[in-house]
Structure formats: structure tokens, C-alpha cells
Amino acid sequence: MTDAAQRIIELYETFAAHWDAGRGKTLGEKPWLDRFTDGLQAGAAVLDIGCGSGEPIAAYFTASGFHVTGIDSSAPLIDLCSARFPGHQWHVSDMRKLSLGQRFDGLIAWDSFFHLTYDDQRAMFPIFRDHAAPGARLMFTSGPAHGEAIGSFEGEELYHASLAPEEYRQLLQDNGFAVMAHVAEDPTCGGHTIWLARFGE
After folding, report:
1. Region of residue 101 (phi > 0: left; psi between -120 and 50: alpha; otherwise: beta)
2. What value, to the nearest 5°, has the Cα angle with vertex 59 and ends 57 and 64?
3. pLDDT class for 11, splitting at 50, 70, 90?
4. Which CATH number fits domain 2-18+29-35+42-199: 1.10.443.10, 3.40.50.150, 3.40.50.12780, 3.40.50.720?
5. Which residues form the Methyltransferase domain (predicted)?
6. Which of 49, 57, 72, 192 is least surrounded by CB atoms within 10 angstroms?
7. Could you give the CA distance from residue 96 to residue 125 in angstroms, rounded to a whole number?
8. Strand 147-153 and strand 156-162: pairing?
9. Which helix (H) or strand (E) covers residue 63, if one does?
10. What is the pTM of this model?
């Protein structure tokens, strides 16, 4: 599965337009996004890690009055974000190397973080910490249990991995985050496994 993991960036570069066309624009994630933003002030800074083409999630944040900084490894997807939401910040960046020198009130990695290998996921938690303002929310999706899985995208293998829930909890704790909510395979949100945490005050 290592080869499939190494091809993630290439796939989203090559098939950016196909991904954007196929990405559902209805906001089934809204109840979780509402929980994520509950209590955030108008104009709060949100970091969207693996933002894709900006729709529908970044669109939700911009419409809600937040300032979005989005990063994605696919330049064509970032070009779409820049065209759709010109008043916000968009960067071509590999999340594993993220170092923006800025802290955010909310960090989200929805359907992006789980494309990383086990070790790369572990290494992301200090990166989350270093970009989190006091009291910041962090929300990400994972698998329900430790393991790797291969999906399909435009006929190509699409890599996914997950750590065990116990390890995610420990990594969050070790990096100053407290779990606010966790649901495995949430039937109200397309079967997503979701983590919502708050950074230490």
C-alpha cells in the first residue's frame, strides 16, 4: 500500500477537475460544522487542511463570516478556491510540511488527513498544535479502527489509513487537545468517523 500512499498528491493534481465535479455540494456535514464553529467569533480564523476546491466546506465558513486559510497539495484545486473565494488565503502546500507561522481559532482536516500513512498522521499532531490558538477547535475525520484501506478514484488506487481510537486520543492529549466529541461511522453524516477537540486554554 506504500506506493498508493505516495501517489495521493499526483492523483489530486491529475484529476482535480474530476474530483471537483464529483464532490457533492450539498452540506451533509453541516451539523458537525455547526458544532465546530459554535462559540467562534465573527471573523475568526479557520485553517482548512486539505481544502480541495473549497466547496462545500470552505464555502460554509466564508458564508458564516469566518476568514479562511486553505491549504491543499493540488495546485489546480487551489486555483479553484482562489477563483471562488478571492477574499481569503489559499496555499499550495503538503500538510506534512505545514509551517504558516500563524495560529488559528479553528482547524479542520475533513476527508484529507486520512490519506496519510500511520507515521505521517502521528507527525501531524504537533503541526496541529503549532497552528492552534488558545481554545481553538480541531476537527478531523479518520477510520473507525487501526488499518489501511484502498479505495478507487478515476480507476486508480486511493490510499486511506487510520490509527486506533485510543492512539488518536493519546496523541490529542499529548499535544494539548481535549476531545469534545467523537463518533465512529456516524450514520447521520454518511458514515464518517469524526473527532472534535479543543486546544488548551
Report:
1. left
2. 100
3. low
4. 3.40.50.150
5. 46-135
6. 192
7. 10
8. antiparallel
9. helix 57-63
10. 0.92
